[in-house]
Prior knowledge:
The chain has 285 residues and is of the alpha/beta class. The protein is built from 13 helices and ten strands. The protein has helices at 17-26, 68-71, 82-86, 91-99, 102-113, 119-128, 136-144, 151-160, 173-183, 211-224, 242-247, 258-263, 274-277; strands at 6-12, 36-41, 62-67, 77-80, 164-172, 187-196, 199-205, 232-236, 250-254, 266-268. Strands 7-6-5-4-8-9-10 form a seven-stranded mixed β-sheet, with helices on both faces. The chain has a three-stranded mixed β-sheet with strand order 2-1-3. Helix 9 links the parallel strand 5 (164-172) and strand 6. Helix 4 packs across helix 7 and helix 5 runs antiparallel to helix 6. The protein starts with 5 loop residues before the first strand and ends in an 8-residue tail after the last helix.
Amino acid sequence: xxxxxxxxxxxxxxxDREAAAALLxxxxxxxxxxxxxxxxxxxxxxxxxxxxxxxxxxADIEIVEVPWSLLSAERKLFILDVDSTxxxxxxxxxxxxxxxxxxEVREVTEAAMRGELDFEQSLRSRVAQLAGxxxxxxxxxxxxxxxSPGAQELISGAHAAxxxxxxxxxxFQQILEPLAESWNLDAALANDLGVQEGxxxxxxxxxxxxxxxxxxxxHHWAEDFxxxxxxxxxxxxxxxxxxxxxxxxxxxxYRAKPAVRAAADAAINRLDLALPLxxxxxxxx
Length: 285
């Protein structure tokens, strides 16, 4: 048994150990309950997500206490949202560009990510704008997709430590599946676009991957990979990720909307920061 039940991580731009100690000591929320403390300075650290924030802790400093049960887990599962998280783009907006509907679709996408619209209704409305596009557009869109900063390092680092990485998306399986294979993901799920006679029908087949489905897949994949739920790390940016984040052992908001930042355990804006926060560097000790 490790001497502490948790490890506290404190990170942000220009932060050193003395500054971190002063911040931690000034926070009634954390003082007296801290486990082992890890500090690093990261100019790429995301904005603070303490809820409610301490007025004495700068907004760009993150403090997160991670249970030792997660840190010491032999096998962990990282599960990521895709659009604007694992990748830099919103795939539906790329598709809409080919249909001449990008502005209209982007407006609906942003409202859905803020939680202002029902996700399934907004998805079907946006997909309807794609009706008639040739399926050849899917390959062109895949070529435009770029991984977010730190994504490749997260995937390779997690695999090197014996962990699993999965992606679950409100986007589209025809885009995600071949990319997931090239990125060496262990599992991936997205929506299935309707196709008929070589063209998109403007519909989605089967059950929509909404926030409930994302949380369900976290539990299913954890079971499939023999990972306890407390050893799962979920990363997302929009309202459709909230149930998945709530279900995980550690929830990370990646360049996220305010509601997601408030709900997550911590905020990051490089995906590979999830490795030290999950204790992956400790997994082979």
